[in-house]
Every structure is written in structure tokens, then in C-alpha cells.
Amino acid sequence: MTHVLLIAGALPQPAVLKASLEKFRAAGATVELVGLFATGDIEPGLGLGGLRSLTEAAAERGPVFEKRVAKLSGPRRIWACIEQDRQVRRFGRRAQVLVALDAPAVYAVWRLAQRNRRADAVFGIAPALKALEARRERPVHYALRDAARRVPSPVVAARSTRRAARRGAGAALRRASSPAVMRTALGAKAWRTAVVAPKVPDRLRAKLARRVSTSMAKGGRKAGATMVLNAAAQRTASQALRADLLAEAARADLARGHDDPALRATACKAALALADQRYQQGDAKGAAAALSSALTLAFHRSIHFDRLTSPLAADPAGYLAPFRASAAFRALGAPRGRTRPAAPAPAGRPLRLLVTTYSNANFLQPIRDRYADHPGVEIRFLDLKDDETLRPLAKGGQRMMEYALGGQKAFGDQVEAALRPHLDWADTVFVDWCTNAAALFTLADPGTTRIVVRLHSYEAFTFWPHLVDTSRVDDMVFVGDHLRDLVVETVPRLAEPGGPGLHVIANAMDLERFQRDKDNGDIRFTLGLVGVSAVAKDPRWALEVLRLLRERDERYRLVVIGNGLDRKASPAARAYDDLLQKDLAELADAVELVGRTEDVPGALTRVGVILSSSVRESFHCGLVEGAVSGALPVVRDWPFFAGKENGARTLFPADWVVGSEREAADRILAMTASEEDWREATAAAAKHSLATWDWSVISPQFDRLLLGD
Fold first, then answer.
1. Which region among 128-142, 346-360, 587-601 has the lowest average model confidence (pLDDT)?
2. What are the distances in angstroms from CA 640 to CA 261, 615, 656?
3. Per-residue pLDDT, 146
4. Phi first, then psi: what are they for 340, rounded to 5°?
5. Rounded distance between C-alpha atoms, residue 685 and residue 670, angstroms
6. What tens digit of pLDDT does each residue of 470-507 get?
7. Which letter does DSSP use for residue 672 in this model?
8. pLDDT given at position 157
9. How far apart are the first and last CA of the chain?
10. Is the pLDDT of residue 161 over 50?
């Protein structure tokens, strides 16, 4: 009896299958069928010698295997299922003829034929019947040939041996370097020694270091996880691998809530050196990848956002010196210019104003409302995140870098095609937030369209301003002089000839709605803090002020308005919040957490003193809103800008600003000693705020900027 194995990548046509089986039986063959179909889809009573669904076989092996093979191409999926199924492998070993019923099954038949060299491997029913006929006509020849081909192909034997060796070695390595081993001092020390052993090839050293680092982190030795990557980098000759390992070490350090400035600086310099090398070689893609690594590390949120200090704010020139020494980084910011200067405001028709941002339109509503009703303006609003074409382009930070370095022509063409209709329509584009939207809009030549970008505070501590082509920006707007000073120090080309006009205009705020009566004089003992969702707000400073006040008078309380810190943001944020929660527990009887509210004016009616406890602010709208509501403003001299030419002391009246918690407590005690003193001070603060920052005062400044009025 001759055995035939049919393999199908899809369900065979019932009529064709039935007719074929009849021919095989007539030729004296027993037929077995396997494939990617359900057993129930095969008509019963066909006289098959065996039937196996590979789809069901994969499900029997569990969801992990089923999910893995589902990602494979059809031919690979068929073979992956057959290779793991004993029943089908048994069919394959005893078959004299292996038949692929369709193209996806050819690969599996070829692989089985390497294992069963006695079998004829064919594609299609007609060749299979010819193979059966040949065996019937020359039985002695095939008997001798089959006897000589009892063992698998040497290729199969070699492949199996290599796979077994790799699996065995890999399993042994995983066991020996497991987190359980790393928890022991002896195990961790042994593996640190192995990673830095001499004469280890770079790729093997890097692979081993990454495995050991991961196991150390899982085993609770997070400092060791950083050290082993750093140590491996020092022993690695390959510039690219060394840069990668150093970057991974620095990121691992930050991931544990720590920051080693020396390690971070070394990692940035290694990445920049690699970027320069690749840039000189004309490898724009490789240079952009290395630059992206350096920039994302230098502007990591744990360094600037989730701590109370920032090395960038302390010394912009020193912090960015390695970048400014990099040829690739300088090329990134090289001006591409524009073919024509921006045209003046049109005469005889309304100005076409496009207001755009990416996701965050929090500060735009008063501006949009003003120009929606302006007879001299036709306004459109575009949120890039809501645009199916622009959203994926705006997320391409590394692609933007590559394009600026001379690569990614197709990406540049896509950006041009997507933005051109907007640029052709608009006379002026106002981009809020100097992030990806600003970088994207300056990738395309704006032609005669005027480009205006507003920068708040967050962006100054990201890499995005460095990706903006300032030669294509006509005007840059800041919400404070102190912020302008910092950004110009960070991005010096803003102040160079041919750079944009620099303007300082406060945020648009409708302040009159915050004017509410406060009839109860005891409100003066209630401190208020609006917005505490970031470490930079430093609510612990406000709690220390509260402690000092309560040492003198226990009537003082604190109301916190807004969501709390996001503990998932970073280990550094979590560490700060751990300390904050202890403080809150200690002062639980004197602190009320209101949470987020849509009625901030209503919440402020309960507040008699409004605090700005932040280490940095662009403007601090919540403070000014509180002042207008009739609360006494007390502003910490924001440490990021304290002692500089501009800061909280130049933005606000001098008596509002304090240098310490003790000064804050003294001001509050003095101004709230009597209801009369408190009301006099708060009335003056409200009057100053309305006269200086209300939208009725600020809006003409926007008219002059955007309309030339």
C-alpha cells in the first residue's frame, strides 16, 4: 500500500477533493489530508486514511503559540504548525508521495521532503498521480532507492543540531542569569565580572550586558543594572554599540528615579560623536537616529519636569555645549530659508487667519472667539491631532531630523502636499505651542504666508524648539520676558540677524468672570493653590508655609484645587509624591483637596490667599485669576528664574513676591491680621490684575501682532 499525504493552505474545493481521492484510491493509495481548515469543513465519508486540521492543532498548543503563528505568512504558518504536531510528522514520515495542493503548502512539502528523502514531493494532483504510476511500474527501483534514503538530509541534521545547541545554551544562560541569581551578591558579582571579561566580541558583550542588566533590574538591583551596561560600554570598541549601551545605561539610571549627570553627559557625547560620523558619511538616517538618542536623553522629562531643578535652566550654554559642538546638531538647525518674504496684510478683503496646534487648545478660545467675530478676519482652526493626514506626519520627530539632515525626501514631499492647501489659503498661520506642529509647519516653505509661533514654558525644556526652522518663522511670541530670555539662551539663532521678531504678550484671560463677592472676612485664613498636577508646582512649599502659619494661628487652612500628581509619569515624580502624601497626612485636618472642577471662579470664592508655589512658571494664570477673585497674591520667587534679569519679581508687583516660606508666612500674617488690611490689599491686587492682564487689555496687543492694527 502506498501512502500519500496531501497538504493544503486553504480548504480544498469539495468536488475537486472528492474526485482526486477517488483517483488515488483507484491507484491503490491510502490518502491523509492536513491543512489550514476546520475538520468540520471536510465532507465526511471520503475514505481518508487520516485527517488533521492545522488550525485546531495550533489552538491545542495554547493561545501563545496560536497568536505567534497567526503573525506568520501562510507558508511559514503551515510549517510552524506541522513542525510542532506529532500526528502530522508521523504522516510525513510514512508517506511515499508528499503533495502540495496549493502554493502556500509548497514550503511545508519541501521541508518534509528533507526529512523523508524516500518520498516524492510534488505540487498538484496530476504530478502526484504520475508519481504513483511510476512507483507501480518500477517497484524494484523504488524499493532500492527508498532503502538508501532512510536518513534525513544532512541539512536537516545540521539545522537540528544547531537549534538544539542554541536552545540548550540559551536555556542554560537564562537559568544562570535569572533574577533569582542576580538577587544574590555572589551571582551579581560573577555576572558583572563576566560582562567585562577581556577578548569578548562586542556584539556578544552587548547582548550579555543587556540580559544581565534586565535580570538585575527584575532582581531588585537597579543600580547594578545601570552599572553593568556602563561597564560593558567602556569595554566595547564599536562606536555604535558603545553609544547604544551608554544611552541604555543612562535611561536605566533615570528609570530608577536617579540621575547621574556624568553618565548622562557621557552618553550624550557618545551619541553626538556617532551622529557626526554618520553625518559626514552621508548617512542621514543613521545620523538622525543618533541625534534623536542624544536629544531624547538630554531632554528627558525626569531631568527637567519631575524634579525641582533643571540643569538647562541653571546653565543653558553649558548644558547644551556638547550639542553646539556637534556638526550634525548644527546642521539640524541650519536655516533653509524661504523663497519669498511674508506678504503684508491684504487690502480689500479680510485677513485669512489659520490658528493651529497639536492637541492642546487650552489657551486659544479667547483668541478664536475674538477673530470669529472680527469683520477684518476670516478664521479657521486646525488641530493636527484630529487630521488623519497630518497626525502621523506630526509624530515623526526623528523623520523631521532626518529630513533636515538631507534624507527622507518622501517624508518632505508628504508634508508639503499635506500643508500646502492650508498655507495657500492662509495669510497668517498662528501656531500655538512650539512643539511638533511648529516644527512641521517650518518643514515646508511657507511662501508668502506669515508664520507666527507662540511658546509657553513646557517647550523650552524639550527638543522641539531645536527642530523649528526659525528662518521660516516671522514672529515668536512668549508669555513672559523671563521665558524669552531662557529660550534665546537655549536657541541663540532666534536672536541672530534674519531671525523672527520676538514679542512678549501675556496669555489671553477673561478675568472679569472671576470677580465674586467674599462677604465672610474669615475667608482670609484660607490659602488656595490652583493646579498641582506637576512636580514644578511644588505643593510641598505651600504646605511648609501652612505649617509656619499654623504655628501662630490654627485658623489657617489650605484648599487645593485641581488633580494631583501623575505618579506614573516617572520614578522621580513618584518619589516626590511619596513625600507629598506624608505631608498631606500630617496636615490632614488643615488641608482640603477639591480636585478638578469646571467652576474655578466658584471654587475661588472660598479662598482668601492665593499662592504660587512653583519652581517655574510661564505666567501662572491661576494666581492672577485668584488675585482678581479677591485673594491675596503670594508668589514664590520662582527658583528657575530667581536672580536673573527677569522673573517673578519683574512680572508681578514687588510686594507680591517672596524669597522663602518664612517670607511668605510673614506677608500672609501681616496682610490678614485684620479684615480691613486684607480687603485693602486684595482690592489693590484685583485692580492691578484687571488693568494689566484682562483680555480687554491684552487683545489689542494680539491685534497689532496679527492684523498690524
1. 128-142
2. 18, 6, 18
3. 65
4. -140, 150
5. 15
6. 999 999 999 999 999 999 999 999 999 889 999 999 99
7. T
8. 44
9. 98
10. no
Find the Cα–Cα–Cα–Cα dihedral 238, 244, 248, 251, rounded to 10°: 130
DSSP state of 318: H
Residues 6+ apart with CB under 8 A from 627: 610, 633, 682, 685, 686, 688, 689
- The CA distances from residue 202 to 170, 381, 591, in Å, are 18, 53, 57
Q: What value does the mean pLDDT of the chain take?
A: 91
Task: List, in sequence order, every beta strand (DSSP E) within 420-577.
Answer: 428-432, 450-455, 475-478, 501-504, 526-530, 557-561
* Cβ count within 10 A of residue 621: 21
| Main-chain phi, psi angles of 28, to 5 degrees | 85, 30
Do you know the residue count of the chain? 709
Q: Please state, in angstroms and rounded to a whole number, the distance separating the CA atoms of residues 584 and 532.
A: 13
C-alpha cell at 665: 508666612
Establish how many alpha carbons lie within 13 A of residue 174's alpha carbon, considering only the half-sphere containing its beta carbon: 6
CA dist., res. 635 & res. 612, Å (int): 5
The whole-angstrom separation of Cα 584 and Cα 490 is 37
Cβ 339 vs Cβ 447: under 8 Å: yes
Q: Which of these, 26, 79, 31, 28, lies nearest to 57 by C-alpha position? A: 79
pLDDT, average across residues 243-272: 96
Nearest to 528 by CA among 597, 598, 627, 618: 627
The Cα 583–Cα 578 span in angstroms is: 9
Nearest to 565 by CA among 364, 308, 252, 309: 308
User: Do 6 and 32 contact (CB within 8 A), yes or no?
Assistant: yes
Q: How far is CA 671 from the centre of its chain?
A: 47
HSE-up of residue 115 (Cα within 13 Å, Cβ side): 18
DSSP string, 382-437: EEGGG-TTHHHHHT-HHHHHHHHTT--HHHHHHHHHHHHHHHHH-SEEEEESSSHH
| Residue 509 grid coordinates | 484671560
User: Is 160's pLDDT higher than 90?
Assistant: no
**Strand 657-658 relative to strand 632-636, pairing:** parallel
Cell representation of residue 434: 512650539
Give mean pLDDT, residues 47-55: 90
CA distances from 303 to 269, 297, 462 (A): 17, 9, 11
Numbers of helices and strands, H then E, in the chain? 34, 17
Cα 396 to Cα 251, 360, 481, 555: the distances in Å are 21, 18, 31, 54
3-state secondary structure 465-489: HHHCCHHHCCEEEECCHHHHHHHHH
Q: By the 8 A CB rule, do 297 and 261 touch? A: no
Contact 274, 290 (CB under 8 A): yes
Sequence-ordered list of residues with C-beta below 8 angstroms from that of 563, at least 6 positions apart, any chain: 532, 533, 595, 596
What's the CA gap between 360 and 433, in Å, rounded?
Answer: 8
- pLDDT at residue number 184: 85
- The set of cell numbers assigned to 612 is 504660587
| 46 in Cβ contact with 72 (< 8 Å) | no
Q: Give the residues across from 455 on adjacent strands.
A: 478
Beta-bridge partners for 186:
none
**Residue 78 neighbours by CB under 8 Å, 6+ apart:** 7, 9, 35, 36, 54, 104, 105, 107, 108
